[in-house]
Write a structure and sequence with these properties.
Elements: E1 20-24, E2 27-31, H1 36-76, E3 79-82, H2 89-95, H3 101-108, H4 110-113, E4 125-128, H5 137-169, E5 185-186, E6 205-208, E7 214-216, E8 221-228, E9 234-240, E10 245-254, E11 261-262, E12 267-271, E13 282-287, E14 295-296, H6 298-304
Antiparallel strand pairs: 1-2, 3-4, 5-6, 6-13, 7-12, 8-9, 8-11, 9-10, 10-12, 10-13, 13-14
Helix pairs in contact: 2-3
Length: about 300
Amino acid sequence: MPAKGKHRRPKSQRFTRSIAVAGTGGAALALPLMGATGAHAATSASTASTVSTASEKAATAAEKAATSAPAAAEKTATKTYAVKAGDSLSKIAGDQSVSGGWKKLYSDNRKAVGEDPALIHPGLKLTIGKKAAASSSATKSSKSTKSSKASESSAKTAAEPTAKADDTAASSSSSGYALPVEGATIGTGYKVAGSMWSSGYHTGVDFVVPTGTTVKSVAAGTVVSAGWGGAYGNQVVIQHADGQYSQYAHLSSLSVSAGQTVTEGQQIGLSGATGNVTGPHLHFEIRTTPDYGSDVDPVAYLRSHGVTVG
């Protein structure tokens, strides 16, 4: 029999579950170990989130590029303008807001217009706007085709001024002078008295022609002024080799600008009824200076240079 008052101590039950012991100043905390599978899952989730964000940014950038592309294409786009009766390069440049004015318009269309910027005609096609640079061989091929067509157009355009020059020859003289308008009758003559004129008399001669009639320089010279002249409306003043000045007033449009050199019979504008007028006509003067009040008889001047004035 066992000794009295003694008992067997029961064996403590062993735990097989793994725990991690972390020291905390003498105390121990039991923490369950995280498996490798859980850590891998957390890393994968983070990577997926990063990839998703990058994809969204790429999609946003692509959308912005697609939106800006039409705007960029619009800036580089060009348009074609068909010349109408009464047009001039300066008028077209103003109406179409061409940066650089008529000189830029002429430079861009020199092959089509020809050597004389004043000789444009209804139906002529002008390119307005800067052309985009070629970016592929297909574009270069297209430009080559257009260049060929432009050459053909230039040849046709060059032939037209020649025909016009032939028409002008009939009213020109061997001395290099011509009538400012064709087939016109004289309305109010030179020095006709009247209170409607500030000088008390008519300082020029009026050629009665409908609006849109071609007005030509009576001789070679340099344009002194071209623009608005108050009561004269749109006017052009040209200095000639003999030191005299010719003035063309009440024009509906101008074909030249100040500083430009012109030849005998070259178109300088179209007749009209701008300024103080009672109807369409060309007011023509010959002056000893470019200013009002220095007038001489314009008919006598033309006749002295061999021009027949009806």
